[in-house]
Amino acid sequence: MKKTILTFVAIIFLTSSLFAKANPKLIDEYLEVSGTKEIILALPKQIERGYLKSIDKNSQSKINIKNSFDSKKTMNYVKSQLSLEFNDKLLTKIITYYKSPLGKKFKNSSLAAINKHDTKDNQPSYKRLKIMNTFVERLELSGAAVHLIGELLGSINANLASSDNPQKIIQNAGAKIKSKMLEVSLYAYSEFSDNELKNIIKYYQSVAGQFEQMIVSNIFKEIIMASFLQILQESEQKTATSKI
């Protein structure tokens, strides 16, 4: 059943791409009501907090990564990609969701999660943990994820020097961050009832929700992967120099 749904979304994805070129005003509205605009603006601060402060100020990767997360450049790139992938009909459906009471509440909590460092002390029930696990799996891009991006880059950078398997380092760092994302999400969305969380999950299981996550998370993954490559390239150069 899951494969059937994903196949269907893939067909929608391809079909929508053929008839894309969304109205720029709708793209601006989507960025605003979904909180994606605030996420883009928050990225440089989170990278600075979690990663850039820990490395040499003269590091070339630090300079390059700082440039790659420039808010204006990122915003323009995201807009250009959305205009190619979204069409007006699908974008209108997504905007309608974010304008609903639950959509607004979710957006506000997601944005607050970007700067929340706390986790909930009390042990969640099995039912709540199961719902939140599904929630985190469905939402690859969220306030909790953005909050942890700098930490992810820092973890990768710290371990590259002692490993000859960068792919494994990235995978291990990703697994740790996913676990932390669950902790942050349990705190950030603690005011949501189980039914509210289920309804949010339901949206992200819909064609519009899956398509939104697919497109937007892939755009951000592209940007973040460019940073990974910068870190990896500098690490390889240092290793090569040390062997001379």
Record keyword descriptors for this entry:
244 residues; 13 helices; mainly alpha; 80% helix
Would you mind describing this structure in some detail?
With 244 residues, the chain is mostly helical. The chain has one domain. It contains 13 helices and no strands. It has helices spanning 2-18, 24-34, 36-50, 60-68, 71-85, 88-99, 101-113, 126-138, 143-147, 149-160, 166-188, 194-205, 207-243. Helix 8 packs parallel to helix 12 (194-205), helix 10 packs antiparallel against helix 11 (166-188) and helix 10 (149-160) packs parallel to helix 13. The N and C termini lie far apart (56 Å). The model is unreliable at 7-18 (pLDDT under 50).
Q: How many strand segments? A: 0
As for the number of domains, it is 1
Main sheet summary: none
The helix tally amounts to 13
Query: How would the global form be characterised?
Result: globular
Structural class: mainly alpha
- Kindly estimate the percentage of residues that lie in beta strands according to DSSP: under 5%
Report the uncertain regions: 7-18
Distance between the termini: 56 Å
**Cα Rg:** 19 Å
Instruction: Give the overall pLDDT as a whole number.
Output: 75
Residues in helix, %: over 70%
